[in-house]
Amino acid sequence: MRKTLIRRLWSRKTLIILLVILLPFLLLSRCVMFRISDEKAAKSFENFPIKPSFHYYKCKLEGQHTWKMHYVEIGSDTLPMVVFVHGSPGSWDAFISYFKDSTLLKKARLLSVDRPGYGYSDFGHAETSVKRQAALLAEVLRLNKSSKLPILVGHSLGGPVIARMAMDYPSLVGGLVLVAPSIDPALERKEYYRYALKFSLISLLMPREFDVSNREIQAFKHGLVKMLPYWKNIRVPVTVIQGESDNLVDPRNADFAVKMLINADNLRVIRLPNVNHFIPWSHPQVIQQAILKHLAD
C-alpha cells in the first residue's frame, strides 16, 4: 500500500513539475497566430496598384454543421484561376507575397483559401477527413470564370488536399503543383505525443491552430490510405517540388508521386538540393515558374 501511495504521489509530482515547466511556454504560445485580419492584410496592399478582395461562402456536408469558409482573391476574373492551399498549421496569407507578384497577376487570377479550422474558416473547428476538406474547398473552384480550368497549388498537408480535389472533382481541376507534399502513408511518422496532447490539460493551453493541426494530423495517415486507389485517376498535368533536406516531410514522397501518378498528363518532379520544407518562402521563384509553366501549357 505504501508503494502504491508513493507511485501516486510521484505521478502527481511529475505532472506538476511538467506543468510548471511547460506553462510559461504554453501561455506565451497562445499569442502565436497563424492568421492575419482582412483589415491588416488590406493595409499591406495600400501602395500596390491591384487590391485583394475578401470573401466568405457557406457549405454544408452531409451530417455536419454548415461551414463558413474564408478566401481571398486578387486579379481579373477573366484570367485563368490559380488556387493556393496552405499546410498545417497555417492560413491563406502563407501565399500573400504571391499576391504581389506582378508577373503572376498578368497571367492569372489568384485565390488563396483558409482550410477548415484555420484563419477565418470556422476557426478552431477541426476537420480531420481529407476527403471532406477537399469537398469544402471544391466550392471555390466553381468560381472560375475563365475558359481554362484552375491550377491548384498545395504546400505540405495542402498537397494531399488538392490531390484529393483532383481525384473527386476532375472536371473542375486543370493542374496540380504539389510543394513538399505529405502524400505517402508509409512515410508518415508515428508521433505518439500527439495523442497525449489531445487528451491532456496541455490541449486546453495550446493555440487553437495547434490543436486543429494536432487533431487533423492524427487522422491524416488514414486519409492517405483511403486515397491510394484513386491516384491513377489523376490525369491532369502535375508538378512536384521537393526539398531534399526536408526534415518535416520525407523527400521520398516525391518518389511516391512518380510511382502513383501513372496517368498524369506530363508529370514533372523538381528536386531542390539542400532545401528544407519551407519552399513557399525560401524559393518562391520555383513555384512561380511552375505555375507559369502550367498556365502556358
The helix content is 25-40%
Cα end-to-end separation? 75 Å
Q: From the alpha-carbon coordinates, what is the Rg to the nearest angstrom? A: 21 Å
- Biggest β-sheet: strands ordered side by side in the sheet: 1-2-4-3-5-6-7-8
Shape estimate: globular
Number of helices: 12
Biggest sheet, open or closed, and with what strands and sense?
Answer: 8 strands, mixed
In total, how many beta strands? 8
Poorly predicted tracts of residues? 2-6, 21-32
Question: Quick check: average pLDDT?
Answer: 88
The secondary structure category is: alpha/beta
Order of helices and strands: HHEEEHEHEHEHHHHEHEHH
> β content, as a range?
15-25%
Describe this structure in words.
The chain has 297 residues and is an alpha/beta fold. Helix content is 40%, strand content 16%. The protein contains twelve helices and eight strands. An eight-stranded mixed beta sheet has the order 1-2-4-3-5-6-7-8, with helices on both faces. Helix 10 links the parallel strand 7 and strand 8. Helix 4 crosses helix 5 and helix 6 packs across helix 8. The longest helix is centred in the first third of the chain and has 28 residues. The chain is globular and about 45 Å long. It starts with a helix and ends with a helix. The N terminus is likely disordered.
